[in-house]
Amino acid sequence: MYRIVIDTNVFISALRSNKGASFRLLSMTGTGKFDLCISVPLILEFETVAKRQSKTLGLEPDDIDDILDYLCAVGNKRKIFYLWRPLLKDPKDDMILELAVESNSGWIITYNKRDFEECKRFGIGVATPKELLQRLGELS
Q1: CATH code at 69?
Q2: Is-above-0.70 flag for pTM?
């Protein structure tokens, strides 16, 4: 089974529209198709960004809380005990890499693939939601 970490841009994209690959991927969380790894810092970032954009997303803060509660219930919760910062171009992305390394994830799912080029040093692949869905056999 694939073990993945999703970037905040994928989470926000899934909330923005129910027609894209991000929404489909997020909807598959908890189905056994992949193992979604999460950490407290990542969930807090999801919450901060989503609630800041809640009006444009067309969601109430309680809706966002419900989605995050579900991810916390079904996600593979990890604790981060070390920090390698800064390593990536955007220092905010380092927590994604740290979670992927600690959880032994094979993939980081993002729309900013170039920002995660250093992940190759750790044997971690970088893919868009569509690319992962194709690997899972969910898209042709």
Answers
A1: 3.40.50.1010
A2: yes
